[in-house]
Amino acid sequence: MRKIAVITTCFTGSTLPLVKALIKKGINVDLYLTANFPVMGNREAFNIGPAHLNKNTITEVDKEYWPDTHLYMESDDFRLFVFRFFRPFHSIPVLRSMLGCVRNRYVGKVARQINDKRYDYVYFIGQYWNDDFMEMMKAIKTPIAVALHEVVDHFNPHYKKTPKLIDYCFKNKTDIVVFSENSRNDLLKYRNADNSHVHTIPFGLFETFPLCGNKVRMDLPEKYILFYGSIKPYKGLDLLYKAVSQIPIAEMKGVKVVVAGAGSDPYLEKIASDERFVLIHRYLLNDEIPCLIGHSMAVVCPYHSMSQSGIPQTVYAFAKPLIASDLPAFGDVVDDMQNGLLFEKEDAMDLADKILLVIDNPDILASLSDGVRNFPETHEKYNWNSIADKLVRQVFKFQASPIGFMRCPDPYVVVKDS
């Protein structure tokens, strides 16, 4: 039986279903989460803890701290580990240099502990700015790959200087997994990009979000369309405000637009003062997200730009349709008038028309929800079984055999690069 380690910073919503799919293929998987604090708390789509971490070593987190996810995994062999990942004052050069040496010694110790487990593969999942990964990757003695949820600042992209982690992967011919063709195209714009080591493998539905439950009660409107998540200018709150402000209050028929999440945007003040909106301007707890999505009519994503988003795969886990701008990444998962509605990017009037379509036509809304329920069957590449199969064969290069998956005999190249 093949044995792999998956190491991620915070992307448990898309990682836990992947781990389950890999286990179903007969692969033994250990999941490692990184933490910046001595007490482990809840993560995306994952209620856990509070579990106290050992100061200088990897901590195994007992199943009693994550009982719902343990049942979801359907495997007693799955093990969860956590280790501290220090980020020593990146904005202060002197402290960064001094404490970075201490951190590197600690990371080396963690890497040795991972090496002692003799994994067949180690799979890192993070972002392009996770330079912290590099010291550990240098010390890992087994084949590695890196999955990147973001490869560039897509609100202010520049490609002249390749991020350190990506540059390290290019030089070492390390396989990089991205989750959309848009991210792949961005990645290949960097200097020294190697197309042969870049793989596009999307993620499926965030199946563990419903496990977080609906234990909280929120003061929400009876009927509403939802915008939620971290609030940033590229996510189009300006466009949403312009669209909704065009709709006469009487035509809203009592439906509100709920904007929920932490962050900043110049239009928040206008949204707060408009009776068509309800603003919940704060960080959202895991237990609140099922409540917000589950009671909504639909979720709106008026984004100006994006590489890919976890919003559709989260919302679809609750059988709710999307109203989204027709950016390529949304177009991959939203079939217009089948499982959601697409409006022309930057067109506030078109967005207003789509919002009214949902408000005025409950039969259309019900039909869209039915389309969402069929999403894993109608979109095979977003099915977790297909995703795991592609990852196993294209990246890990395991081959099926009568005794389980075996690694292909291609050489593994390590280039020592500082």
Which key phrases capture this entry?
418 residues; alpha/beta; 8-stranded mixed beta sheet; 33% helix; globular
Walk me through this protein's architecture.
- With 418 residues, this protein is of the alpha/beta class.
- The protein is built from 15 helices and 18 strands.
- The chain has helices at 12-24, 67-73, 93-116, 132-139, 164-171, 181-187, 237-245, 268-272, 288-294, 311-316, 328-331, 348-360, 362-373, 375-378, 384-396, and strands spanning 3-8, 28-35, 39-40, 51-52, 59-60, 79-84, 121-126, 144-148, 175-178, 198-200, 224-228, 256-260, 277-280, 298-301, 322-325, 340-343, 398-401, 404-407.
- Strand 11, helix 7 and strand 12 form a beta-alpha-beta unit.
